[in-house]
Amino acid sequence: MAFQAAIFDMDGLMLDTERLGRIAWDRAGHELNLNVPDDFYLKMVGRRIQEVDGIIRDALGPGIPVADYIARANAHYHSLVHDTVPPLKSGIIALLDFLQERRVPLAVGTSTQAKSAMRSLESTGLARYFSEFATGDQVEQGKPAPDIFLLAARKLGVPADRCVVLEDSDYGVRAGHAAGATVYMVPDQSPPQPETRSLATRVFESLDEVLGHFTASPHLLQSER
């Protein structure tokens, strides 16, 4: 069955910003003399800012100055990301150009809040490829709940089961699968968990590999022509 639309995650998939997020949290933790576990940051990849408070408390225990920690990490992140143009992941422009040329409807489905997401997408020139945007502050539940991808599909006017979702995180893959979409995973910070690998339709090493897959299988894409 051909895909009628594609929904792209943003951080870690299109933008090489997940590593910058790790740096921001590490700097904030160092400033507050926190003993932060090595896998702490990975617990937050793909989650909304509203859910970070609980993740911090669960990972670091009681007595943590959560609000101060979040504020410092956000300040470092904004300095790293928004004061400059966020770096792009290899292959994203070629892939988006290919899909745009075939007139495949495209949406962004990101846990990031709308204002921050649009700032990043506009500064990198990626916003022009997408007709719709579904963000973390527009839904009741974030990933791994399917809300963001269901909203993106609804905005596109395409059933979720006729969309392909491209994701880099375990939470994102679980969300895309729960939405009923086909899910292509391009891991970023860590390899997928076994459960995640079983939920993803395909796992690719890079966006260049995704493009090669679509180029070799043009029947998968149903354009608006």
Notes on the structure:
The protein is 42% helix and 10% strand. The protein has 225 residues and is α/β, with parallel strands linked by helices. The protein has two domains: 146 residues, Rossmann fold, CATH 3.40.50.1000; 64 residues. Strands 3-2-1-4-5-6 form a six-stranded parallel beta sheet, covered by helices on one side. The chain starts with a strand and ends in a 9-residue tail after the last helix. 41% of the residues are buried.
Concise account of the structure shown:
This protein has 225 residues and is an alpha/beta fold. It is built from nine helices and six strands, in the order βααααβαβαβαβαβα.
